[in-house]
Design a protein that fits this description.
This protein is α+β, with helices and mostly antiparallel strands and 806 residues long. The protein has 20 helices and 39 strands. The strands form ten sheets. A seven-stranded mixed beta sheet has the order 27-30-31-35-34-33-32, sandwiched between helices. Strands 3, 4, 5, 6, 9 and 10 form a six-stranded antiparallel beta sheet that branches. α4 (239-247) crosses α5 (255-267) and α12 runs antiparallel to α15. The protein is elongated.
Length: 806
Amino acid sequence: MRVPIAWLHAYCAPEMSTAALAERLAMTGTEVERTEAYGVANLAAFVVGRVLDAQPHPNADRLRVCTVDIGTDEPSQIVCGAPNVAAGQTVAVARPGAIMPDGTRLKQAKLRGEASEGMILAEDELAIGVEHDGIMVLADRDADGVPAPGTPLAELLPIATDVLELEITPNRPDCLAVYGVAREVHAATGAPLTPPPWTDDPGREGPVPGIEITVQCPDLCPRFTARVFEDVTIAPSPWWLKARLMAAGQRPISNVVDITNYVMLLTGQPLHAFDLDQVAGGALTVRRARAGETVQTLDDQTRTLDEQMVLIADAEGPTSIAGVMGGARSEVHAGTTRVLMEAATWDGPNIHRTSLALGLRSEASGRFEKGLAPEQTMHAQAVAAQLMIELCGARLVPGTIDVGGPGPAPQTIRLREARVRGLLGVEVPRARQAEILTALQFTVADADDGLDVSVPAFRRADVTREADLIEEVARLGALDILPATLPSRHGASGRLTAAQRLRRRASDALAGLGLHEVVGWSFASAELARRLRIADRPAVALANPMSAEQARLRTTLIGSLLDIAQRNHARGATRLALFEAGAVYLPREGASRPDEPLHLAALLSGPVRPMTWREPEPPVADFYAAKGALARVLGTIRVPWTLEATEPEPFLHPGRAARVVVAAEPVGWIGEIHPLVAAEWDRAGAPVAFEIDLGAAAGHAAPTRFADVTSFPEVREDLAVIVADTVSAEQVIAVVTDAGRPLLRSAEVFDVYRDAERIGAGQVSLALRLSFRAADRTLTDEEVAGRRRAITAALTETLSGRVRDA
């Protein structure tokens, strides 16, 4: 619900900013989704002007060069393309510096060689209408009360307002109305509230000659009211009405149609205007539709109805779908002179069902389905009658057809002081309770133990018991005085679980490397499995999916990472580093629920670091970049791991992938995405990724041990060893580490060398950097030499390797 502040202030105008009002409403239960500025800005640049002269442009047939008095010492020259501009007109002018509704700042310009110092405005350029074919003419030369040139335009037209966009809960349809929101503002802020706009009703009760209304299903139409207007003149609505509709999100059409929309937004009660000359027989019947019956609605679509839907019909058949949309056959048009104005109450669940079944949702159906009070029909009729007489020059035919009115008697509920105190835990004085409820339009009377409260019609469906009244008292008068307390519990703590700490440490490790965490859907499609080449793997199918793209539960995280990478790449992000931690869902045979292991996956694509002048072409993420990220994660959670060459996952590149092994058990995979799979996501360069079962890996985490920091230096030596090309560097490191204990602290490969002539075919030379240190002494050369000899012997015996001399 969009509520223009300028319109709201016509009924309740608290002395506070829009932001403060939004916060107050939110704190009292009316959710404010956002606020926005609507219309133009820099109001001082929008003024009234008078066209002194309008001459043809010397270089353009469709332009005119106008001299315009805007109240300054010298008139301004403005080039205008409107066909209706003429000397003597009083017009709306935007001077240089004006900020238009789309945010454009107007500047001095030259149009086909002629200077233009501003713009003569059409109504859509002020966001108070949709007309653009001609400029707005505020008055002609000889009109009375012509505003003087230079008068601020904001004094004449509502060209700027803030708008509250409210998220109205289904139990509060009364707040789907500007006056309903005004009631809430009055109760929340104490600002005065004007009397309801339907107080002065120009109509009266009684039959309407020549009109007959029959309601065959009163259970679905509790009340149906109608009035007739003659001598109606169809014309554009005045600018103030157009401006309010535009700011509220409605498009102006004509005065009669605009009146129905305006009244709906003001009172919350939808109306429908029939061209009475198109109502066959002058009679309307409200009934259930027949199976297969059709009606052409205002959007020029033919709808097929069923027996559970309600329609309004005349002697020739259906004219509209009750509570949802009117019919094209009886709609108001430019030649309409007689109007039947209908305001009715419809059964909310039935309207909701009809709207869903037809795939047709309207402003009216959105209100009716929440349940409106029958009394609101006459509120809307009263306001509509005022506007029809004022804006259309209509004559109201005496009488009002009212079938089913006026509505049930108000309910009275006892509100006990002790019950209020018991539920809220704070004391709210009886006088304060009465003040709050009276401000909300409840009728209050004193009782022995509290208050007797009569519920107004517009809250009838929402407030039905004592607890509901206490909620009203609480949200406006108690929530802000409730003390801050913690629940009374024993043994409660705010610590993370072991699994939560594990996930956080792993995520922090990747975030520290510069990867960005993402959150993907737990749902996937069969098409995603096909693109990943795992369509034959079992997955959990949903019985009632939201869409075909979300028909099953995911069995891997890589699909959502590729989706997110594609979306970012399409928007210019060429360097991607993403990770996700979340559950996957693996079906178990014979079990009602799937396994939900916690997986961690990462994806790297593009350069590993930004381009600089020193490195214009940084290296691209490859297998070893992904391995480094995996090493950081598993090292952080202290899990010993290895990689094992094996048959890769179907979506990985053969020869550029491996299995992640922990305690001789596979816990995941790492590798480059297969180019053909990457092409399914429009990726020219294949990304690299890994995915591990974080829970399974963490089960083998080594305990944390602390040791004193030694002050004794370490001894560093390099060793080059020649082994067969089939021996992995990991095997070499394992042998060296085992043989070098207890003095060897670290061993790492820093170079790889191949040369068939110098070291032999099928051989490889690995250069190792060794670090020796003791915790209690400085090592001697003999101690280090002894460990080195042991390492050399172990390499020879275990791997048939030899130390390279040169």
